[in-house]
Amino acid sequence: MNETKKNLWKYSLYTFFVSLAFSRAIFMLFLKDLGFTTAQMGLLESILFVATFVMEIPTGILGDRIGRKWSMACGIIFDLASSLIFLYLHSFSWMILAFILTGTSFAFFSGSDRALYFDSLKALGRESEYLKRKSRLNALSIATFGVAMIAGGWLRRFGWSAVYWASIFAALLNLVVVLSLQEERLGRGHELSNAERLVQKDSMREALNYFVKDRRSRLLVLFMVGIGLYGAFDTPFAIYNQLLLDFHGLSAAGIALVTGISTFLAAAFTWVAGSYLEKKDPHRVLIAIMIVSSVLLLFELTGIPWVAVAIFLVMGSFSEGVYLISDSISQEGIPSAIRASLLSAFSFFENFFVALVYFFWGILLERVNPSIGITSLGIFMVIALVIIWRHGRLKKLAD
User: Please, what are the domains in the chain?
Assistant: First the structure.
């Protein structure tokens, strides 16, 4: 029990190190410096998310079978391999491999890290604290992202090698932290659910079928499809804004600074949101965020640089609120034994949508004004809004 309790502060260290993504705010500029076109950048991003999409469920099942910390360790190793390619091998073919490795590393992390943290709290009888604690961890992650992004813009002055070696050093430290985590395995100190018994019989397929056949679980799938469509807007919006701000004349350091400020605002929003959201209807909050975001997005059409910066800053905070709420809702309805698998399956939806959007919008942005291209992403948020509204109505009827 004491070792499990240590997971809580070790997970904070993991969150800190995994968030030291020094290239995050400017890696599109890295690809631009290598001479790749916007269409090629979009294709690489699509490949990344296709790799994540394909590997989501296998890595989630693997995490449930061999242990979540080992899945997380594999994610770090794949990320290290991709960083080395970014450092030394710059042909388009090598970039494809690097993005496949990066996407696979995302899949190893996805589901397993959140499942390990939730089950650590559950083993301590403190799972009711998940929303508040996860909001604080998200705030730490976002603030660290902000520092790393600004630092990445500064490190860029010494060359791209400085940016990626800093990321490699952080990843190696994180690997040490992850390998020290203690994981509760099935059958130790808690009564097994039907799904968990099926897993112990080596029947993952039956366990997943058990989950899908439950009415409330099917509603959760509908909800996660909506969140996946929101991700199809939010992820490309955040990344392609690098090119939009570059179009408006901002330097690499300036773009990194704006992105860093956005993450600090998002960290403050997330820190406050955890306690506030416990008292509110999560569906109403999600719908309100998406309606306001849809209206704000229309102002991108003005083509005014400071308006584009302001929208980017606000959207960053809103998106963290959406993911915080969706994470809490999804965690509540999943049996522990298949938690990593099902969380990965839900990410599967999002990555499928994001991969398609990256490819087609990469081509679109070569042919239209970036402001128009960015605004057109809002169609996915509108569809997500309708699905989440519908989920809320159906859930009330089911209750």
Answer: 2-182+204-398 (1.20.1250.20)
